[in-house]
Amino acid sequence: MKALGRFWLRMAAIVAIGLACLVAAYRYRTSQRPGPVPRDVQREGLRLVEQILRKVAATDFGRSRRGRLLAEKIGDFIRRDRLIFTPDISWQAGYRRESLGYEALYVKVLRIGGRLLHQEPEFIAEGIFHEAVHALRGRGGHSSIEEECDGFAAGLAAGAAVTGAKLPELLLIDGEPLARFVLRSYPNLPRNPDYRPVGQSRQWLLQRTGLR
Ligand SMILES: [Zn+2]
Questions:
Q1: C-alpha to C-alpha distances, 140 to 27, 136, 146, nearest whole angstrom
Q2: pLDDT in tens, 128-139
């Protein structure tokens, strides 16, 4: 009886330690989340995103299967209050998925002289459509050259929808083919021959971005 009591005590201790570790891990993860902006800045940002979605929806890209899938994913983040404006990220936007299923789409807010300013709609559009690709395709943060090409291609299409620019057949970033830009910017990212772009064929992705 005594031995049995010790057994359960030990079990309880192990379970308690396990729970404490889980709580610590959860606290650590949530403490790593980028911080939100004041409510009025968030509201203004969401208004900009809704204008962007309306503009994109009126273009060929927005009406395509690809455009609709990406816009739906962004709308999904908005409905769940998971499209969050923050000054705490260094890119235009970022997608975060945690192991317990929490996911959020973050959009960069500029902090200039103590003031919080939204980016130009073109850059917000680029950022959220790029990250929507990761949200639809990303598997635990492991991206690939193909996935980044898909993301940048989606971002360019959304940015052009906002400005009214016409994109060339071979997509360019800073004057160089999109794939070359991605290969140069992410030298350690693996290739993924099985990658399927959002709402399009692999052949389409290779052609539009110049990826071989
Ligand atoms: Zn990316």
A1: 19, 11, 16
A2: 999 999 999 976
